[in-house]
Structures are given as structure tokens and as C-alpha cells.
Amino acid sequence: MEPPDPSSQETSGDEHPLKVSCGIILKNGKILCAKRLPGSWDDLWEFPGGKVETGESPSQAVIRELYEELNIRVEILLPMPTVLYRYPHLYLQLFPFICRIVENTPQIAVHEEIRWLNPDEIQDLPWLAPNWSILSDLKKLLEDKPDLLNG
Ligand SMILES: Nc1nc2c([nH]c(=O)n2[C@H]2C[C@H](O)[C@@H](COP(=O)(O)OP(=O)(O)OP(=O)(O)O)O2)c(=O)[nH]1
Q1: Residue 103 has pLDDT above 50, yes or no
Q2: Looking at this predicted complex, what is its ipTM?
Q3: Distances in Å between the alpha carbon of 7 and those of 3, 10, 12, 96, 115?
Q4: Which atom of ligand 1 is nearest the CA belonging to 40?
Q5: Paired sense of beta strands 83-87 and 90-103, if any
Q6: Which terminus of the chain is more exposed, N or C, with fewer CB under 10 A?
Q7: How far is the CA of 148 from the centre of ligand 1 (A)?
Q8: How far is the CA of 20 from the centre of ligand 1 (A)?
Q9: How far apart are CA 127 and CA 115, in angstroms?
Q10: Does the structure show a pLDDT above 90 at 68?
């Protein structure tokens, strides 16, 4: 019998990652960061967003979630590389999108706090684990395209 192929074990069977979209909202040189409510994931920081629903694309999901969570209408400027991450209880695929606000000012509904921070400051927050990879991609992207920061 052939030994199992470790690479196929990662993706085989009925295990599909949970798809979650999130928005990296840029404005006036700052990035919007959101702190989750106490009790849900230990007060860690995230980019606002949520699960992609059935029949929805990741980009549709982020537009819907940002309206539901922050009451803002956004335009997507750029999709970023997706991140696969395996929590002990959850296999996740994160779809980050660089966004620009086209209507309203963010209002907190489901977060403990939001902060507008510059690219250096965001490194100091305690982020959800999969987000560190997004932060590293974002740093490189903003070095290449600093104008994005102005939203
Ligand atoms: N929204 C968001 N979720 C993230 C990020 N990083 C990360 O690991 N996650 C995880 C945490 C959760 O397990 C999952 C998304 O959950 P969520 O609670 O935001 O999704 P949702 O709004 O659809 O949730 P709900 O309606 O079921 O409460 O993805 C991120 O930057 N933003």
C-alpha cells in the first residue's frame, strides 16, 4: 500500500475552509482596526468583516458585512492574497480586501472599539493569529503603492 501523501491530506476529504471576508479600510494615511468584543476571541484585533454566506462572493460579503457592522458603504480597491489558517477548532480562509469608504462614517455596532492607525502603529496591536500574514502583505503593498493609504 502506498504511504499517504501529506499534501493531499491537507485538502482531501470533506474538509473545506470556512470562508471569511474582511475589509482593510484606508483613509487619510490610516488603517481602520477593530477590537472584537470581550469573550469572543479574547479581545483580539481584526479587520471588520465576517463569514461569506451561501450564494455570495467574498467581495459581496465584505461589502455587506461592512454595512452591517459599521454602517458604511465601501468600494473595493484591491483584493489581497487569501490566507489559510488552521485554528484548533476551525479551518479558515480569509479574503482580505483593500477598501475605501464611499458613504457614512464608521459606527460601532459589534466591536468593542475601532481605531484609525498608521501602518507602523498597527504592528503593536494583538491581532487574531491569521492576520499577521495580512499585515505583512499589507506592509509590502503600501511600500509599492503608498497612495492607496489615502483611500
Ligand atoms: N471578521 C474577521 N474575522 C476574522 C479575522 N481574522 C480571523 O481569524 N477571523 C476569524 C474569527 C472568526 O472565527 C471568523 C469570522 O467570524 P465573525 O464573527 O467575524 O463572522 P460573522 O460576523 O459572520 O459572525 P456571526 O454572524 O456568526 O456572529 O473569522 C478578521 O480579520 N476579521
Answers
A1: yes
A2: 0.93
A3: 12, 6, 9, 25, 40
A4: 18
A5: antiparallel
A6: N
A7: 25
A8: 6
A9: 13
A10: yes
- Whether the pLDDT of residue 132 is over 70: the answer is yes
Read off the C-alpha cell for 42.
Answer: 479574547
Task: State the pTM of this model.
Answer: 0.90
**Ligand 1 mean position to 41 CA, how many Å?**
10
Cβ atoms of 57 and 132 within 8 Å: the answer is no
- CA-to-CA separations, 2 to 6, 8, 14, in angstroms, rounded: 12, 13, 21
Ligand 1, atom nearest to 96 Cα: 31
Tell me the C-alpha distance between 24 and 49, whole Å: 9
How is domain 16-150 classified at the architecture level of CATH?
Alpha-Beta Complex (3.90)
Pocket perturbation via mutation, ligand 1, pick of 18, 19, 20, 97 by most ligand atoms within 8 A of CB: 20
- Which of 39-43, 92-96, 131-135 has the weakest average pLDDT? 39-43
Q: Which residues line ligand 1 (CB under 6 A)?
A: 20, 22, 41, 46-47, 49-51, 90, 92, 94, 128, 130-131
